[in-house]
Fold:
Amino acid sequence: MATITFANTKGGAGKTTAVLLLSTELARRGYRVTILDADPQHWISRWHEISGPVPNISVIDFVTTTSLPIHLKEEKDKADYFIIDLPGARDTLLATAIGLSDHVLVPIQGCAMDARGGAQVLELLHCLAQRAGIRIAHSVVLTRVNPLVTTRALQTVKDLLSERQVSVLETAIVERAAFRDIFDCGGTLETMHPSRVSNLDKAQENACAFAEEMMRIVPVRLTASASSLGYDPIRSAA
Ligand SMILES: Nc1ncnc2c1ncn2[C@@H]1O[C@H](COP(=O)(O)OP(=O)(O)OP(=O)(O)O)[C@@H](O)[C@H]1O
Ligand SMILES: [Mg+2]
Structure:
């Protein structure tokens, strides 16, 4: 079992979108995913409502600083991955969620490079390590990247962050209509119709690469249902 928190104190960085992409991709591979929705806009819970039951996905709504540790404890045998969607705020919930995570992902918009909200989370992680000796693995994922942006421009951003010893995922989340539409239509990228959404295949490839990278970084032992789906075994460190 592993807990992954998406955190950026700046609103609109792409946290909720990334949460949904990762969760649905992990679920498709047979992992049991519980999403803890602490976003005051409840986008994930609304998506879950309009989608109906999605195999391997459970959503817990109205997560607070007090309820978060209780949910993690009570649900620990029911989930392979807990994915936490935080509000775009710097508050006690942020500190609590970070403290309970195996990995913190900081989505930062690759195009505008408006990294201030991300920097606050990185500072908090640094502070926990320096002052309390609590080291929580973390990475930045670049989000809403323009599909036409050159590899070179993106590499510059990655180099800049790695100069500051911040690890950046190889896969950036691209700006795609499918990633917006999924919240209106419900379901997953697999259940969307290619004739209704432009570049659905590219969106699926992107989400798949993102999830595979996260599965390598935060591996969880395969459940029976995942192996029966025929995916490659993931080496477990859990
Ligand atoms: N990769 C993407 N492609 C297309 N649209 C995106 C992408 N990522 C985010 N968006 C859009 O940007 C807006 C903000 O994204 P999202 O809700 O995921 O951010 P957030 O960090 O969760 O925001 P908040 O802090 O308000 O909870 C939404 O309208 C969403 O549909
Ligand atoms: Mg959100």
